[in-house]
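Human: Respectfully, please carefully check these C-alpha cells:
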Amino acid sequence: MYEVSRETFVGLVTTAVADLPDKFRDRVTNIDFVVEDVASRADHARVGVSGGTLLGIYRGIPLPRRGRGYNMALPDKIVIFQQPLQRLARSEADLTERVQHVVRHEIAHYFGISDDRLREIDAY
C-alpha cells in the first residue's frame, strides 16, 4: 500500500491526462476528471461488477453514441478511485503507473472502446 494526499493524487491524475498523446487529448471535450475515494453501489451496478474492485469509471455518453442533440450537455465524468489504487500500489512509481493506466482505460471508454475490445487488443 502506498498512500498520498488527495492533492498529490489529483496531481497524478492531472499529469496522466496531460501526458495523453496529442491526437487523443485534443479530441477530449466536455469531460471532467474527478477523484473519489471509492466506487458507489451505483457505479458497481453500472458496470455489472458486484463485490469487485473498481479503479475508475466513465460516466457519460461515448463519442460514437453522441447525436446531433448532444450540445449544451453537462460534462461527462471520468472518475478515478483513490483508495483502491493506493491499496494496490507499492511505491510512488507504481501508483503513478496505475493512475496513468486507469486514466487511459477510461479515456478508451469515452472514445467508445469496450472492455472486450480492450482485451482483444491487449490493452489491459
Q: What stands out?
A: The two ends are 21 Å apart (CA to CA).
